[in-house]
Amino acid sequence: MGSGEEGRIPFPSGVGSSKVCSTVLDYPRNGLFWNRGETMNLISDLYNNFASNFATNAIAILSLIISIYVAYRTLLAKFKGKVWPANAVVLMYVDDIPSIGVGCFIENTGARPGRLDDMRLIVEHRSTASTYHFYPQLVRDDYNIFADYQDKDWFPFSGVTLLAGDKLEKFVIFKPLNDQFSANVGEYQIAMQVRWNERSSWQLVSPGLTLFLDDTARNHWNSPSEAALQVWSRAFLKQRDSH
Fold first, then answer.
1. How many structural domains are present in the chain?
2. Contact 190, 123 (CB under 8 A)
3. What does pTM read for this prediction?
4. Could you tell me the residue range of the domain that residue 57 belongs to?
5. Which residues are CB-contacts of 69 (< 8 A; sequence separation ≥ 6)?
6. Which of 31, 50, 76 is where one domain is finished?
7. Which of 195, 211, 145 is nearest to 173 (CA)?
8. Does the residue 88 lie in any domain?
9. Could you tell me the pLDDT band of residue 141, with boundaries at 50, 70 and 90?
10. What is the helix, strand, coil percentage profile of the chain, to 5?
11. What is the gyration radius of the CA atoms in the chain, in angstroms?
12. Are residues 34 and 149 in the same domain?
């Protein structure tokens, strides 16, 4: 070996250094290196598989969410009935008996239908502590104190059916139990109670109404020949006067 050959490792016969490099770079599976084309194809396959699986999983998750929501709406959701009285009552008559007309806003905020079975007013005269129960007698959808209604314009109260999301307005005339009531001068506290879905317990509606009757209003209400008289709640009048 001459001086020019010193330090070189001899290759096997017939194999040059360029042949070795070519063999290493072109050996795609068991060697240390892959060629660039094979690597890019592998990356592309992995990306396509990921994108396909992601879309499939997203659709499956969305379907699951929709199924849970539908199950909630149909199986788990409840009926949620609410009633609000108007800020004024109408002092009127049914069969010459002093009665109370109240505008009622009725709503079902739940996802199931339900029914308002019954209503009543607990009317208390503050100074005498006399308490009277008024029950619904007649109902219609709206009411104008200046209109002249006939018997055919009213319907007997038989409850109110509410579908999911319903918002209704009813004008209800309440008549005293056993037709026994005579108005007095002074302050009256009126509390409304309701019963839902064949339950036996009464639910108190908040807020209640407080009215004040002077001599004129008392005499008007006790005289069946007089026209209907609208009386505002004291809370509403106080709020109106504050502005």
1. 2
2. yes
3. 0.69
4. 23-76
5. none
6. 76
7. 145
8. yes
9. very high
10. 30, 35, 35
11. 42
12. no
